[in-house]
Amino acid sequence: MTAVPAADEDHRALFGQSTAVFAALAGPDHLVETANPAFFTAIGAEGATTGVALAGLTGPEHIDRLDQVFRTGEPQTARDVRVAMGAGPQAREAFFDFTYEPRRAAAGTVLGTHLIGVETTQVRHAQQLMSEHRALLEQIARQAPLTEVLDGMARCIEKLAPHEVLVSVLLADPDGRHLRHGAAPSLPDFYNQAIDGIATGDGVGSCGTAAHRRAPVIVTDIATDPFWTDFLDLAGRAGLAACWSTPILARDGGLLGTFAMYHRTPRVPQDADLALARVFAGTAALAIERHHDEQARRAAEARARSAHDDLAKVLAAERELRAEAEQRAAAAAELAARMRTAAAVQATVPHPDRCQLGGTAGCTAPAEIKIADSWGDAAWGCSAHVEEAIINVRSVFIASAELGGLAAYLSR
């Protein structure tokens, strides 16, 4: 036998089987001759017996239609009739499609009526759930902000749940050691602030424990549960009496956060409650993982842009250095050419044998070029010391009228 996927099992638990009600009614007073137990539950007369008039058990909307069917012999239908089923904590809103048909004798005389109803609550909830779920998936697909998706999801569940529920989503830190506020539109602000940053660990409330165990934690009565010992006052001020928490896990099993359903009174979850939690915990996981992927993509793009900018700066600096080096090479070549020309011109001019620019250590190289400065000082030096002096002393120049030196400047 082929195994049923877990998601299908959850949908089956959520939508369940529709309730069918039936009653055979006699005469114009619509006396109940026979009926199934679901009939008495649906009309708010649980525990009632046959032999009573329907008018004493239900509202006028049924009686008016039954009167018309009995009088005319024509069947009637009513769609999406709202019915309050049960009482007290188990009370719930339900919807039915009703059919009212005549009961006839062999001669065709109308003896009474049949009332048949099929509950459509699950169909309505299924339509609402699928519509809301589709809207959430569309938000995730268009990369809506995570807070917007989670807030919308929480409100959706609170609207769809048959009993009052307060939804909270906490997001795990990257190290998985703490949980941060994600969404909780119906919980008090002071409560959300108090649990923002709560540690994960065994016995740390419902959510901290679920995150630590990577498994659902069902606390049906906060007042008596040891997991809530340190949070009793906080829960009491927030009016919370039960908390069912489901871990939100990534595809690789990593912790993404927790999904919690709070209640005002102590409550034991039904299969439909747990299925609803699993369905939306999976939706939250999809949203959070998509958010993390988008954050990682943007971070990678930012790093790439930064690396590109750094490379552009390096290349610009390299171009500047190359240009400077080329300028220095051109200046050095020009200076070398000038010095060769000066040495050739000054070779016949009387000059000392040795370089005079060697400082205190002296220089034994032959003197080749005469240089001067703007103060009128002059000296002969070897090519190496002359080049060094021209480069390092701004006012020094080759003392040659032919080369445009100081004499040329003075006789301009």
Automatic annotation (TrEMBL):
Residues 132-298 form the GAF domain. Pfam families: GAF_2. Residues 308-335 form a coiled coil. Keywords: Coiled coil. The keyword Secreted does not apply. InterPro entries: GAF, GAF-like_dom_sf. This is GAF domain-containing protein. It comes from Paractinoplanes rishiriensis.
